[in-house]
Amino acid sequence: MQLVYNSLQNNCITRVCGKIIAFGILVAIYGLVVANPLAARDEVQRGACPEDYSPCSCNLTSNGLEVVCADVTLENIHDVFYRTQSLYLYSVLLTVTSFSGTVTLPPDVLKDKRAQHIYLRCPSTSAKLNLIIDSASFEFTRFNTTIFEIHDCDLSAQADMNFLKGFAVLHTLSIVNTWNVDAISSLPNNTLLAIKELTISRCTGLGNVVFPDLTPARLERLYLDGNNLNDPQVNNILISIGSSSSSSSLEQLSLAGNALSKVPRIAAFSQLVTYEVSNNDIAFMSLSTLIFSSPVRFLGLKNVSLTAIEGGAFQGNYTYAQVNLENNKLAAFREDVFKSMLQQMTVQPPAVGGQVIVTGNPFDCGCGLAWLIRDNQPLIPSVKNGVCGGFFRFEDLNPDAYANC
C-alpha cells in the first residue's frame, strides 16, 4: 500500500488525483468549516510542530496539529502515530493506494489517537475501491468523534456498521457517492445517542434494505438526495423515521434527485421546517400534500415537471418561507393554491417576509390572473420572477386590462 497526499476540497474531503485506485482518510479535530475548508485552512497561522512526524508532514495551527502523510507505507503511518505523543490532533490526512482494488482498515488505525472528525475517501473513478472497515479500526476515538463520513467507495464487502458501535458523541454521519450501502440497516442505533444529522447521498443499495430505527436518537436533519429511490421505497423510509423518536425532532428533510412521482407526505414530522424534493418527476400535487405543523422556512419543488397543483395543497405557516417552484410547467397561477400563502408572506415587509419563486413557468396572461393583478396588488411583491406570455412581468401588467374578467 502507498500513501498519497491530496489537498482538501469541498465538504472537508480531499480530491483524489494521480493514482487510479486510492483511498483517503481525513481525520479532523475540532471544527473544520464544511462549506469551504480551503479558506478555513488558509486563514489559520501555521508554525512548526513540537514533534517529528516524518515521513509525514505536520503544521501547528491555532486549531491544533495538522498531520499529512504522503507517499508513505501503512507501516510507516503506524510508526508515526505510535512514536508521537500528541494524543489530540486537529487533522490527520492519509491516502492509501491499493492495486488489488480493496483496502481493509486494520484495528486501531490511528494508534490510540483521538479524532473529532473522521473522513474516509476513495477515488471518484468508475471502478470504485472496495472498503472494509474493521470493527476496531477507530475504537480508541469513539468517545471523541463527532463527525464520520465515507465518500466514493464500494461497501459491498462491508458486512455491518459495527465500526461505529459506541460512538457516543457522534452527531453527523454521511455516506456520499458510494455503492452498496446495504450495511446501513445494521447501524448500531442503541449506541448512537447523539446523532443529529444523517446523509446518504448519490448511493446505491439504500432502497434494498430496511431503514434503521434510530430510536432513542432524535434526528434533526436527514438528507437522502440522488439515490434513485422510488415512491414505495421513500414511503418505507419515512414510515420508519416517523414511527421513531425522530418524528418529533426532524427539522430538515431532503429527497432531491430521486425517482419520485409524488410528493411524500410529511404530516408525521411536527418540527419539520425545511423540505426539499426538487429534481424529481412530480406532475401533480393533490390536496393536503404538504401539511406543516411548524412555520416553514424552505420548500423546494424546483424542476419537478409540475403541471398542476390542487387547491389547498399548501397548508401551514408560510410567513417567512422561501417556496421554490422554478422551472416547472405551471400554466395557471391559481387563487385557491397561492392566495393564502401570499397573504401570510405580505404580513411582513418584502425584504423580511417569504416569497414564491416561479422563474421559468409558462404562465398564461388570461383572466386566471385577475385575482392577483386586479384584486390583490399588494401580494405581487411576494411573487418572484412571475412572468406570463413569455415576457410580461406580473408587476408590469395593467389591472384595468382585467376589468371584464
TrEMBL record:
SUPFAM superfamilies in alphabetical order = L domain-like
Q: Which GO terms describe its cellular component?
A: membrane
For this UniProt record, the keywords arranged alphabetically read as follows:
Leucine-rich repeat, Membrane, Repeat, Signal, Transmembrane, Transmembrane helix
Q: By its UniProt entry, which InterPro entries does this protein fall under?
A: LRR_dom_sf (IPR032675), Wnt_signaling_inhibitor (IPR052286)
- What sections of the protein cross the membrane? 12-33
Question: What's the superkingdom here?
Answer: Eukaryota
Coiled coil ranges (UniProt) are none
Name under which the protein is recorded: Membrane glycoprotein lig-1
UniProt organism field:
Daphnia magna
